[in-house]
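for the recovery benchmark. tokens below, seq after
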């Protein structure tokens, strides 16, 4: 068996595999192709969302790169769903679930078809970590390609501008005509949401892990650079096959530390915690939420990026992307330069000749003038979240908050109260029964956080949930509260008017109710009925682990 064809030779070599070859002739195989290593091209193209509507062109470029490097490419598709479209609706329950479906489907196709390596192309929030999970699980030579960022809309708008305009409309600050103008001009074409939201965060993290080619995470979706990156990825997989380099050679504890470090420096999404835990689990690398705290103590926030900051990803692309930032972090001793990457070279080798940013740029701060001297991703614990919660505290909203609980069963009830103006200054909005099992699916709370911001309350209201947040959320927001309400976690026992204190400096979240009273409430509590007893959501709810473990669906299999 050829060392370069450990999987495809089983599928297509020998007399007994004539039926397999017969099936492949009509798909474009020629006799000489059967002796080449096969490279799958996992495309997440669809017209479901602008994030992925152009990925078919990138997939074609990746296939050409693999073919011209001496492999035989085979294109296949998997699904995607749009967070931005399903946000605030029951459909959002399927968003995090789709990460598992996509990872499972890539694993299924690559495993069934015997590809010797593959390119995985993602462009929206969940298909990107799903690609990383599949790469780690399969452990075959592979490269991730990011579909690229969208360009800003009129007046530098993006999708979060629309969500916040909805809140402004409810407060009487935005007219019907103004809202229509914002919604019709915010999304100008293909590409992922334009701030340092989850897509751009995860693209950057995957590059820092070493799973994508240098520069892949900071390119415009519609650009020659992005097509060239896709072509290069196809060729790179062929070279990885020759050298026998697999994700297990790349993914290490130090690689994950690099990804966390870059995520913090970029002021990235809280979803990075969830997704990096999941990829690490797939790679059998020990990683916990406490690693984010440990690393966060020494890494500053340097990027003035949306949603809390001023700039869009396309503007960071204009000044050189993330590579100069990674070079600065490496030179400061904050990255592990000896980690291998899909180039076949180390991270330090990849960054050796990267020039610094232009002197007059304002997007990336110097180390002596950071936006925040330590991480904005704060892991909180306390009697309200004994197994942890993830806060996104940039410093813009202060470092502590104390207020009275306003409790809601589910996002819709909270959103109604915010829109009606009954959520007021000093409230700690509790949105519960939105966890991985109880939601199910751990919906994102972009609609309520944007409505709070649109009503001008971002400095005066906190929001706490066992669900999670979009990368576009900002303000005093705390998610991933574990144990979740559906499992009887303390968040299920909070009552209206209870005092809650959130302290980012001590990393504590405290419910000011004595233990005896909490126990009385616990005895009176009972879990609500499951959302559904059949289908995808029911299967997910029964299999999923807690948010503090990455909300993966194979954590407890096999005992």
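predicted aa per position
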């Amino acid at each position: 068996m050829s060392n370069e064809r450990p999987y495809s030779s089983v599928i297509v070599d020998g007399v007994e595999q004539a039926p397999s070859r017969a099936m492949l002739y009509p798909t474009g195989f020629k006799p000489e192709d059967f002796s080449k290593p096969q490279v799958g091209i996992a495309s997440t193209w669809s017209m479901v969302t602008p994030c992925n509507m152009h990925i078919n062109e990138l997939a074609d470029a990746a296939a050409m790169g693999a073919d011209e490097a001496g492999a035989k490419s085979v294109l296949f598709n998997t699904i995607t769903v749009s967070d931005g479209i399903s946000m605030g609706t029951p459909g959002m329950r399927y968003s995090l679930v789709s990460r598992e479906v996509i990872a499972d489907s890539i694993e299924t196709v690559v495993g069934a078809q015997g590809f010797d390596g593959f390119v995985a192309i993602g462009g929206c929030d969940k298909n990107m970590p799903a690609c990383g999970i599949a790469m780690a699980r399969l452990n075959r030579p592979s490269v991730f390609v990011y579909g690229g960022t969208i360009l800003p809309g009129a007046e530098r708008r993006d999708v979060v501008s629309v969500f916040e305009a909805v809140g402004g409309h409810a407060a009487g600050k935005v007219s019907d005509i103004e809202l229509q103008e914002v919604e019709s001009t915010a999304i100008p074409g293909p590409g992922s949401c334009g701030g340092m939201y989850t897509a751009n965060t995860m693209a950057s993290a995957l590059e820092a892990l070493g799973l994508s080619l240098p520069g892949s995470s900071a390119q415009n979706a519609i650009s020659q650079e992005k097509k060239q990156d896709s072509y290069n990825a196809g060729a790179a997989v062929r070279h990885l096959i020759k050298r026998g380099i697999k994700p297990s050679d790349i993914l290490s504890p130090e690689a994950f530390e690099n990804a966390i470090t870059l995520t913090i420096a970029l002021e990235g999404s809280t979803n990075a915690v969830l997704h990096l835990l999941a990829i690490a689990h797939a790679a059998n690398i020990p990683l916990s939420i406490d690693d984010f705290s440990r690393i966060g103590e020494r890494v500053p926030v340097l990027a003035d990026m949306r949603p809390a900051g001023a700039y869009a990803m396309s503007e960071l692309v204009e000044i050189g992307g993330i590579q100069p930032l990674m070079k600065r972090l490496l030179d400061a001793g904050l990255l592990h330069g000896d980690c291998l990457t899909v180039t076949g070279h180390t991270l330090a080798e990849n960054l050796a000749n990267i020039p610094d940013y232009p002197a007059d740029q304002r997007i990336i701060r110097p180390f002596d003038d950071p936006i925040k001297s330590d991480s904005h991703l704060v892991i909180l614990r306390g009697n309200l979240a004994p197994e942890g919660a993830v806060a996104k505290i940039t410093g813009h909203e202060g470092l502590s908050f104390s207020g009275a609980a306003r409790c809601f069963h589910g996002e819709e009830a909270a959103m109604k109260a915010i829109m009606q103006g009954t959520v007021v200054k000093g409230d700690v909005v509790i949105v519960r029964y939105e966890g991985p099992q109880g939601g199910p699916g751990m919906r994102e709370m972009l609609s309520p956080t944007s409505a709070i911001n649109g009503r001008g309350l971002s400095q005066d209201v906190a929001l706490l949930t066992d669900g999670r947040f979009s990368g576009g959320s900002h303000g005093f927001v705390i998610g991933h509260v574990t144990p979740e309400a559906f499992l009887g976690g303390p968040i299920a026992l909070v009552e209206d008017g209870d005092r809650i204190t959130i302290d980012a400096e001590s990393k504590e979240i405290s419910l000011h109710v004595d233990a005896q009273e909490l126990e009385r409430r616990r005895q009176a509590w009972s879990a609500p009925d499951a959302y559904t007893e059949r289908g995808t959501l029911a299967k997910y709810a029964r299999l999923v682990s807690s948010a503090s473990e990455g909300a993966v669906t194979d954590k407890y299999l096999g005992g």
